[in-house]
Request: fold
Amino acid sequence: MALFGIKIMLGRVAAFWGFVGVCLFLGSAIAKLSVIAVQIDFNALTIWQWAVMCTWIVFMAYFEGYKGFQQSFSPRVASRVRYLLKNLTPLRFLLAPLFCLGFFDAERKRIIFIFCLTAGIMLIVSLVKHMPMPWRGIMDIGVVVGLSWGLTSVVLFSLKALFTKSFNYPAGVPE
Reply:
């Protein structure tokens, strides 16, 4: 009976670690990009730059925030957080945030997608770093909006996954 209690406790710790790790990952990106985004001199922007910035913010909110995070990534992360509660291994415990992000113990297609997406994001980040202001700040504002939407949806989906029985999104773990 005591062993069963320890297993439940370790599952909860892993789920919490996975959830917090994903939130810290997204939150740190939001914080770093926000520092750059607020350096824009909004009074010096041209009409063209304002139009680009507003369009970019809407684009990133919809495609990154809503389509990417809310419709796909966040429910899967939440499902994987929930999955950790009863399907714990030593590797999943140790690397819970990476498990929740889908870097391992996922369908092969999903793992390839996650690694390609990560590489693509790293490439885009390295290119955007070389953009002059205000363009870099404009790009970063849009990304901050998308990531903030994403972090919010990860939190809300995870709460639903952990505290309701009606969460039926697949964890994408090969059985």
Observations:
- The chain has a mean pLDDT of 94.
- Residues 47-84 form the longest helix (38 residues).
